[in-house]
Batch of 4 targets.
Target 1
Amino acid sequence: MKGCDAVLHLAALVSVPESVRSPRMSHDINATGTFNVLSAAREAGVRRVVSASSAAVYGNLPGSPKKESMSLRAESPYAAGKLSVEHYSSVFSSVYGLETVCLRYFNVFGPRQNAASQYSGVISRFSAALSAGEPLTVFGDGGQTRDFVYVADVARANTLALTAAKAGKGEAVNIASGRSVSLLSLAGAMGTVLGKAPRILFRPAREGDIRRSLADISFARRLLGYRPAYGLEQGLGLTLSAALKKRR
Ligand SMILES: NC(=O)c1ccc[n+]([C@@H]2O[C@H](COP(=O)([O-])OP(=O)(O)OC[C@H]3O[C@@H](n4cnc5c(N)ncnc54)[C@H](O)[C@@H]3O)[C@@H](O)[C@H]2O)c1
């Protein structure tokens, strides 16, 4: 890291179910791995480290939209690892003077997301199914809501967090669109983009599935100057056309 001005740390064991099966590996990668990045950055004289946290730190506690000042509750080794990312980042700022920022991403989507894994985001799975002419699988009644944010907006948030003069004191910041949509409305919107109504297969609800997820993004706006530029339909259009091109 010598000579490096700032570090963006995104690497992680990203699957919640895998973290439940392999808590030690999750801890080694997400908690210890981030500690190692922060230590190496400090030793190399890096100015700022921006790390990926997650909306998972809010757990299933009531209250919507989620604000950074609300209580947190880790409900998986993955979420505990992300809380540890936030705590160590804050300690490296207050104790060692390293500038740090943690970004609590909500549901990120966009082209080239891996749809093959069962842990992929719902939009990548829906777009792979739609472009193959297959039905969409919905777990539960489809009324669960999510705050989907397009990947280019997340990339912009990352750049802002690396450079914003006001940030760097160990803040944890929501990065989302600030709008929520149910999975059934999402399926409908994807059908509208493609010009055909999707067929939907309903399967039993998944245990522990959060019912509502919506972020308050006003802190990101104040601290970083972050404003999402992509609406859901625009992001879906770009994601679906990339998925269709890939099949050709
Ligand atoms: N995609 C989302 O919706 C979302 C939501 C919340 C948080 N996040 C966080 O954002 C970050 C990026 O996620 P993503 O969706 O791009 O996932 P991803 O799986 O595409 O990227 C994670 C990367 O980490 C790498 N990695 C894993 N273990 C490693 C190790 N031991 N050493 C080095 N590299 C290792 C993987 O090879 C992979 O390239 C992660 O920290 C994730 O927890 C993502």
Target 2
Amino acid sequence: MNLIPLLFSALALFTLTVNGQSGPVLYQTYCSACHGAQGQGGAEGAAPPLAKSLWAQGDPDRMIKVVLHGLMGEIEVLGKEYNLVMPPQGAVLSDGQIAAILTHVRSLGNGGEKVSTDRVAAVRAKYEEREAYWKGDELLKDHPLPSPPGPLKNLVRKFYALRKDQRSIPDYAKLEANASARQPNGLINLEGYSEKDHFSLVWEGELNVRREGQFSFTLDSDDLSALYIDDKKVVEVPGLGGMGRAKTGKATLHPGVVKIRVEYLEFTGFTGIAASWAGPGIRGTQSLSSTKVVSKQKPKINLIELKPEGNRAVHYRNFIAGTGNRSFSVGYPGGVNLVFNQENCGLELLWSGRFIDAGPRWKNRGTVRSFPLSGQVYHLQKGSPYPGRTFSFQGMELDDHEYPTFCYSVDGLIVRDRPQPADKGMERILTIESAGVGELVFAPLSRPVPGFSLECRGLVARQDGTFLLPLLKGDNSFTFHYGIL
Ligand code: HEC
């Protein structure tokens, strides 16, 4: 009997085990000398840590490339800068070995997802010809680091479907959650719910307080919300309304872990929630939500106020808090102002008084939204006023006073939509060109708006607040009066 093949197969078996199963052992052999036995980083900064490193999280290709071809140049890991060189290991290690090592690295506080041998093989094949080390910034261009998790630990989000007439924070003791999910990103967020109506979300988690003292919590929401620390209410945003109504509350806290609970109710229309905290041990303000709180006070410094001049309207085509991305704002002489969304032909906001502060936009291009300068802003519409219809925006005409008429088509009907200042508010004149007899549902409000009246000459609003516009062949004209003054 020939012993050689037996020996070979035993060897093959041994290699296979090392290849496929022993990530920790391989790690100790090939990485720990520099990165530390637990991935805590080399002594005296000789190599950055791998444990809890964003470089080892998210897209696995980033790490695979580092191991295959090495890394040099400036990088930042866990808040510290490095400018060192890691030698390539691609020639020494097989695809399976690299996959096993990186899967082990993933278990060091890096999310734990497996890295597959196929993935390593694919990256190796793609860069077969490459000899150069990777540079940090070169890798980040193709594989940006995942955003670091937010400050809320053990965060759970519960969803409650609500009845349509529920307009206040419900009594949760009487409700059962329809869904509940862990939020590993540690941030309050509306992901998956931003298009829904009539619901509540409740977030429960923990916050780590490092130093004793007074903390302030700021909350903003569309519609209602309330924030509790250790079961005590700290701040609430009452009433139905849009973002931009931020409130701040204070709490004195001791070092340690505190419970945080945020309750949120969305009625209809726009959605939004933002929360932040500030206090001892926190640099500046730290966001507790994926949407940042925008301070309404700030624009007052360096105010760049846009005003209508004489009998001409002023326009502002830019991001405005609480509106869509193709919103067009008009400030009319006499102090009526509006935001029209060209994406869906909806009249989103209406307010009286001063128009807009373009200052934030001037100073921080593209990063901030401007705010209406008056206190009472009516959030009228989210989405299209023509439910279920297909529409396309065609353009805008300006008259001698720079008043726009918005032109668009709704299922083949040509609509000319002209807002203009009128007695105690605004008139909106719709001229609809129809090829024959028909009707069109017009829904100018996404929800009842307190303190606001909307009337149409010759037509009565239906129970749900919509209007049924009767159409004859030719031009049909309807005048709606929006009373706000
Ligand atoms: C000879 C020392 C050395 C060895 C061995 C080594 N590395 Fe590195 N590694 C470094 C250095 C130094 C850097 C930082 C390079 C820079 O500053 O651009 C680094 C960076 C990294 C990074 C990106 C930054 C971070 O900390 O997350 C990863 C991922 C990484 N190494 C993984 C590994 C793995 C996996 C192994 C084993 C297969 C390994 N390294 C072996 C020295 C080493």
Target 3
Amino acid sequence: MEINVFKILNKTEVEGPGKRFCIWVQGCLRKCEGCHAKKTWSHKPNKIMTVDEIFELIKKQKDIEGVTFLGGEPFEQADALGLLAQKVQSLGLSVMTFTGALLEDLKYCKDKGFDLLLAHTDLLVDGHFDSNQFDLSRPWVGSKNQRYHFLTDRYSIDDINKYKNKLEIRIDKNGFLFVNGMADFDKIENDLCLQVPEIKV
Ligand code: SF4
């Protein structure tokens, strides 16, 4: 089974609890106003990887607490990500998933892939980014409507409250910046005259 991947980071500390392997999936139908991840909207194949290829990469990471799926819209590739999440949890690692959908809508659909991904997600963040409800007071999310759902007992609200929003900035060998985490990206772009290439939901 294959996943259309926008980007992978082997290790990040700003996309969920602890150090995490992070997968931005390619493709999102929502087109939220103010989205800073527009490069992930297209459904054209970007980097196609099998579940097993990604799982092998995850197994090589020595000190990660878990894996985060974001995008793009992870539930548009729920069959494959559900399978990957199942494998990730079998290693004792946690799974965090972001979605622009609402948990109740995902459950209502009774879609096999949705149910599999939900069954193997420890922490779900639901709700699309809403620029009219912009709020950076909670970790990893950018608007007030977004909700944390503790789908297993792996995490609790006390765990979440230990974290604050932070950014990581990477410069690759060609001089391109990759910025991830959560912050006021409009302000950063304006202040630094940067093109922020992509961020999460
Ligand atoms: S904010 Fe998230 S859900 Fe909304 S368009 Fe961007 S990637 Fe899609």
Target 4
Amino acid sequence: MTQHALETAAWLHELAPEDLRRTVDVLYRVHRLVALVTDLPTLLHSILDESKQVAQAEASSLLLYDEITNDLYFEVALGETGDQSALKREVRLKLGEGIAGTAALQRESINVADARNDGRFFKKADETSGFATRSLLAVPLVDREQLIGVLEVVNKIGGGSFSNADLHVVEMFAGLVATSVSNARLIEKNLRAERLAAIGQAVAGLAHHTKNIITGLSGSVDLMDQGLSQNNSEFIARSWPIFKRSSQRIANFVEDMLSFSKARVPVLESFDVRGVVKEVCDTVSGTITKKSIALNIDVDDVARMIRADQRGIYRVLLNLVSNAADAVPRSGGHIRILAMSADSGALVLEVADNGPGVPDAIARQIFDPFFSTKGSQGTGLGLAVTQKIVVEHGGQITVSRAPEGGALFRVVIPQEREGQEPHE
Ligand SMILES: Nc1ncnc2c1ncn2[C@@H]1O[C@H](COP(=O)(O)OP(=O)(O)OP(=O)(O)O)[C@@H](O)[C@H]1O
Ligand SMILES: [Mg+2]
């Protein structure tokens, strides 16, 4: 047994049976609080409340140490009287100032019976809150040698000073508060570092992709310049498709970034899914023609009129069809687009191709943002955005092997039966 455990046992022996029961009860409750409550302000508030009750005090407060300004400020102040918010706003104690500041500086608990007649007492706190301090117990919060703050209980109910048992119980609470605060800070710090690293990575990827598209744009503009200055229509004719494709890529990329950047509630409207399929095919017509891809579109009559976010469904189909167009072979490429109604009434969209399919090894990653096997030709936002839109509709997206050998993406979008516009 350690020295500390022996000391703890000794003071527990001094307690009257009912005090012992109260102490064990409250320790049990506080340990459960630490395990269950995940948000720090609620946890601190609850522990302060328990400290107040267990020490039979009129008030309790938690001062946290500010490393930058090297002083203590009130984080939580619980009491029946006085202006606690003014205390939190206006009062700061330097290390060594007041009883709390002294406990923090010396890293030792201070138990005073008559605070007002103690030379170290800091009157401003009472003046600000309107509270009259008599007895006071201040316990420093230290975690892994780091000063975290000070826990105080004020005014023993019924007069007199805080007992040795009060001191030990409040010291135990202080240990829990110190660990909770410093763990929460550590988690926050790690999260911030991870977030910054992820943002950095994302920005680098996006900048790289933008640069590639701009290179294509500038190349075509140079070619156009030459064509214009030399009156050479062949140069212009050659540059124009590159220019169109690059501006299309940039528009698409910006749309994907916007769709990805924030949560959206789909704006539901009724529309003919054939119109959206046609728009998608027009958008990718450059690649379709260039690779002579055979398109097979099959929209069943029941599924024609659907209720969904039209721009969202357009983006879903555009991303799936663009991927299929990228995947199919240079010659003999084939893409099948299907819209049908499931038995449940849900809309089912399928895009299948005869490319190489999605290898099992990466099937789990393809929906991750920035996952791409296309190097400089892809950002890896397409499927992440697609999945996000589908999920925002309460739907599902899956990938499997298509009968024609390539990938088969299947999207299911639930349709409300009631309030649905009649089918044509
Ligand atoms: N039809 C498909 N056949 C084979 N692999 C596919 C298909 N669709 C997607 N993939 C794989 O999933 C990856 C992620 O697709 P996603 O659309 O998210 O990004 P991307 O197409 O690479 O880039 P972009 O952001 O320009 O769409 C692709 O890089 C590819 O490896
Ligand atoms: Mg894509």
